[in-house]
Task: inverse folding
């Protein structure tokens, strides 16, 4: 059995902690395997949170008082997942004979909406069979072989203008099964489409992913509308509706992580992408760069006086009557104000025209009745205010975030609880608007990460505190066929994650049931148009808010919103307070004081938690929960499974999670990524020690039932021991991540 050896912490902190407590014990990793196929309905399920089925039976999801609501007027807080089909042995669209199995599996953990991502990719080409030997060799070495997911676009055509009937049938049946179990759908349009020769898209062979180009390429604009028409006017024979008229479709997304303003800010409008050229991240081809040049000159003529254009030419150093050159990112800091602001406003107008045009096409021409959104805020080292000027024009706004994404982080595998001001919560809180719903359609602590147990309880709690409207985890991959094995073989797949799946139910209780109360005070930021433009010239050190003087801890203490991006200038803010950061409701507290590692406490009537370095913060407790454990890092949650608060409930859900990894996994020298992902079974470090549950009104007996990866009882029930301070329960044997607690009163 493999063991985890405690690693040396940062020296000053390690010395301080070591003087207070003995070193954490090495706790052997033990098998704990998620098995959705074997799971049946369980007293630990939270499907009751989904409400009435079928989804949308009373009508469409709409907006009221700045939030998503169902047709009956009740709040609709999305607790969702993405489906993409990236992972081994998975598919975006499960076979029809397994669709109901996966709909039930999602409902049991509280998922009430599925985001269908990458539907615009082709169906699988038989040529991919040639990659089978490479894939098997890669996976035998414990390395991931990236398999392209299958979408709806028929690969047999030399264009992207035909959808595959069999793939559509699987989508139709799965959407129907989700609907029957109370789960809504989110249909994405332009995500990963790569145009073919028959599409007659200029430079299609060069641009591959068409991000950025989609805003100005005339042929691409036509094809985006055609794809939307093909999908959304398609009649689902099982629901008996077109997708444009389907009330179980909660929302339609126009593009994914795609902004021409982002291209500008990241220096991707250079126009140097040519055949044989070096691919330095993304770029425009000369054809589209020339088109953009012409559009800019026309925009200047329309939006600036001849005198103003002449002045901009003079500042740009070009002759009278000559085209005004566009700026590169390296020119931002020195560019004259008139020139810089003109180009910023030009690109903003492109995005506004695109989103309003596509929104009108979907709603007015196609008759789409679902809510429509544009693009997600997703890159936190550039400002978001410029992009929000267009995104806010649609029904609501959205964000994506990852803690230490493997593609953009060097040193990874560190705990977020130690860095509250860089947390995913702080980043996401820069995006919401006053009077607009806000969702997070992609989020994860990507694998491998030894601190992933912190993600779901923290995100769910602070999302409820911020009163957001939805969270979709990236990603959930239904396991099918002979390639399905019981381990996690993908950076983002949560389907078999032995920590995240047990926690999904807790997150649904914290967020969808809104066990955490919303902030009592919301601080709104207003920006002038000039501030929004100038934000793009601020240094990266101002990330993620690009609002000098803004205290980044504010979203951990109060609500945070934008009131305007074309209004009064931003005023002054209160200074950053000392730790701990306590929510104005008193229910959340983020501790990271000198000499200690991070710990967050969640203390509400129906859900409570200790998340982080519990052992070295043993004095931190909640009203009903205290812990004495041997693990140095863990997340322990306690939630009522009834409408009653913990103190009066007769059924509670307890999760106790720490580190996990696949059998045989091998870390690199930096312990930031794994050189070998390992194999089945998945292993967990069981949380080991004792809990005390206090103030359980009238309790005369307490029974703790350990649950396996199918939520079935394992081992013998554990009886709580009544002490003066409360009910003591031991943890660690058998190895599990979740328990059902039953109380006799």
Result:
């Amino acid at each position: 059995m493999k063991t985890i050896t405690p690693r040396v912490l940062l020296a000053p902190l390690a010395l301080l902690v070591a003087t207070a407590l003995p070193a954490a014990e090495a706790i052997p990793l033990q098998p704990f395997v998620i098995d959705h196929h074997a799971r049946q309905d369980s007293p630990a399920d939270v499907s009751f949170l989904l409400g009435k089925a079928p989804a949308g039976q009373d009508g469409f999801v709409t907006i009221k008082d700045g939030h998503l609501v169902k047709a009956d007027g009740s709040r609709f807080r999305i607790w969702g997942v993405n489906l993409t089909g990236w992972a081994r042995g998975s598919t975006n669209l499960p076979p029809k004979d397994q669709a109901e199995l996966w709909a039930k599996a999602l409902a049991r953990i509280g998922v009430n909406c599925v985001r269908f991502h990458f539907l615009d990719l082709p169906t699988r080409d038989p040529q991919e069979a040639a990659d089978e030997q490479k894939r098997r060799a890669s996976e035998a070495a414990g390395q991931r072989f990236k398999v392209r997911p299958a979408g709806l676009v028929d690969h047999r055509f030399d264009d992207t203008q035909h959808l595959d009937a069999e793939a559509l049938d699987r989508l139709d049946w799965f959407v129907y099964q989700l609907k029957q179990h109370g789960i809504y759908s989110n249909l994405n349009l332009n995500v990963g489409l790569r145009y073919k020769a028959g599409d007659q898209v200029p430079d299609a062979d060069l641009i591959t992913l068409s991000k950025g180009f989609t805003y100005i390429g005339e042929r691409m604009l036509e094809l985006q509308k055609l794809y939307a028409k093909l999908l959304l006017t398609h009649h689902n024979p099982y629901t008996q509706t077109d997708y444009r008229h389907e009330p179980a479709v909660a929302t339609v997304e126009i593009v994914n992580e795609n902004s021409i303003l982002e291209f500008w800010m990241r220096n991707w409008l250079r126009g140097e992408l040519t055949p044989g050229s070096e691919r330095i991240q993304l770029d425009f081809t000369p054809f589209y760069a020339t088109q953009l040049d012409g559009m800019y000159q026309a925009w200047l003529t329309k939006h600036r006086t001849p005198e103003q254009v002449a002045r901009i030419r003079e500042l740009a150093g070009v002759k009278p009557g000559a085209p005004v050159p566009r700026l590169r990112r390296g020119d931002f800091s020195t560019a004259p104000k008139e020139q810089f602001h003109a180009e910023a406003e030009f690109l903003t107008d492109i995005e506004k025209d695109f989103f309003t045009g596509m929104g009108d096409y979907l709603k007015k021409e196609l008759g789409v009745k679902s809510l429509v959104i544009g693009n997600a805020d997703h890159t936190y080292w550039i400002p978001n205010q410029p992009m929000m000027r267009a995104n806010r024009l649609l029904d609501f706004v959205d964000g994506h975030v990852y803690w230490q994404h493997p593609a953009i982080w060097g040193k990874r595998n560190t705990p977020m609880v130690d860095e509250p001001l860089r947390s995913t919560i702080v980043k996401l809180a820069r995006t919401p608007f006053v009077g607009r719903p806000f969702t997070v359609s992609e989020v994860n602590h990507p694998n491998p990460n030894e601190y992933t147990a912190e993600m779901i309880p923290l995100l769910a709690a602070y999302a409820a505190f911020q009163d957001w409207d939805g969270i979709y985890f990236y990603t959930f991959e239904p396991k099918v066929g002979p390639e399905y094995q019981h381990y996690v073989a993908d950076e983002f797949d949560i389907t078999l994650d032995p920590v995240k799946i047990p926690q999904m139910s807790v997150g649904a209780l914290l967020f969808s049931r809104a066990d955490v109360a919303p902030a009592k005070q919301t601080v709104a930021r207003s920006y002038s148009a000039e501030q929004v433009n100038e934000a793009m010239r601020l240094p990266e050190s101002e990330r993620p808010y690009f609002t000098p003087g803004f205290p980044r801890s504010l979203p951990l203490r109060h609500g945070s919103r934008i009131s305007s991006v074309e209004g009064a200038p931003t005023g002054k803010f209160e200074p950053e307070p000392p730790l701990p950061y306590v929510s104005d409701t008193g229910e959340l507290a983020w501790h990271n004081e000198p000499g200690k590692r991070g710990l967050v406490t969640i203390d509400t009537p129906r859900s409570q938690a200790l998340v982080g370095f519990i052992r070295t913060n043993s004095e931190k407790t909640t009203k009903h929960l205290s812990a004495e454990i041997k693990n140095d890092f863990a997340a322990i949650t306690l939630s009522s499974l009834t409408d009653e608060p913990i103190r009066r409930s007769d059924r509670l859900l307890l999760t106790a999670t720490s580190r996990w990894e696949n059998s045989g996994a091998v870390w690199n020298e930096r312990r930031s990524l794994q050189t070998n992902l390992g194999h089945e079974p998945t292993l967990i470090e069981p949380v080991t020690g004792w809990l005390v549950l206090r103030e359980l009104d009238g309790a005369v007996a307490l029974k703790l039932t350990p649950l396996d990866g199918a939520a079935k009882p394992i081992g013998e029930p554990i009886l709580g021991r009544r002490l003066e301070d409360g009910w003591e329960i031991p943890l660690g044997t058998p190895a599990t991540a979740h328990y059902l607690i039953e109380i006799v009163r």
Remarks:
- Residues 1-20 have pLDDT under 50 and may be disordered.
- Residues 11-28+582-744 form one domain.
- The first helix runs from residue 11 to 20.
